[in-house]
Request: fold
Amino acid sequence: MFEEKSKVERQRLAWMILLGSFFICMVVTIAVPVTANALVQNLTESLSTFVQANQGTVGVDDARGNRTALLAGENGKQIAPGERVLTGDTASALIAVNPPNVEQLLARVQVFSNTDLTLVEADTPRFGVSDRMHTLTLAVDNGRIRLTVPDFGERPSQITISTPQSDITIQTAGQYTIIVGTEETQVTVQSGRLVVLAEASQTSLSLAENQRGMVPTGSGPVGPLETERNLIVNGDFSEQLSRWTIFPWNVERADQPAGQVRVLDAGDEPRLNVIRQGVGQADVLVRQSVNQDVAEVESLRLLVTFRVLNQSLEVCGILGSECPLFLRVNYVDGSGFSNTWQHGFYALGQPNQDRPDGCTSCAMVQDTHEHVPLGQEYFYDIDLAAEIARQGRVPPRFIESVILVFSGHSFEVEVVDVSLLASD
Reply:
């Protein structure tokens, strides 16, 4: 009897061991791939978020409140989630967001003066097989930013801009402007598409190309509204040089070469690249005919993003007429006279008696040439009508053309974007 009972217990133990082994085997067989897949799908690493001063002195506060000052022309720095970018009355900043160790631009954020911006999140999947998106979250408590989002490529991105009045979600390539104040948030879509969610009412508004919306404090979204008209077509060179006219090179010395004007892709973003290697003066003009009446517009903003990669002449030459980049606008003023406004940029040298900071041979409306950091992207933004009036001239009523002039001896310039925005 005892032997029979012992035999049953041994059989029971054997079945328990067999079933337990089978259960453990099944758990391992299922859990290991599921866990591995979860890790592959969900493990992330930080996006590269690099900030530089565009003008003036930009403050960067870390999570503990310690401040670093960034000066225009000096090296920028990587920022991490929790860090703030602060610009004062005379400062502006440029933020570039890229995947780690990859030359692919995910977003360019132009931070204008008097802006308080915090990086909340900047993540990307660690493994290429992950289905997750690039994720960028910014909080803008006050001020103005302009966001450029190139084509995403194989992996999509989600960009969220949080303001005191709203949450703005962008999942489409394009150009967007966001202005935040105590009373409202204004959102403008030059190209692309976004969704604005009002914090107070939890109602949303979708905005497409050439639409504007606003979210008053404590209220729901208002829109779509009319937005600024961009008088420049193909200003981002996404259609190569369509609508732009390239004039023949003017080369001082017959034995010296002209340069090249071409559109290059840099990190999935087209750029107008103008390069010349030689001795003696040479210049080339790239023009777009606008032919638009602007007599009734409230504002006329000119925005250009570019970088000077190389320049052999100091400042803009002995007459100030050989800047690597001039912006020119041909216009008819309110008195009916044709005129030209121009502004020059250089990245090398200091103005002196032999190198003036203005063009002494140019009969145009102009201010002093502007120094920009060599090799660094730079954005220039003015109200054109107000600037012309500030220089004591009659503001324009009709814009004839916008011209990019590249000049010097040896130089290389890249232009990322040109916009002339008319607000009715």
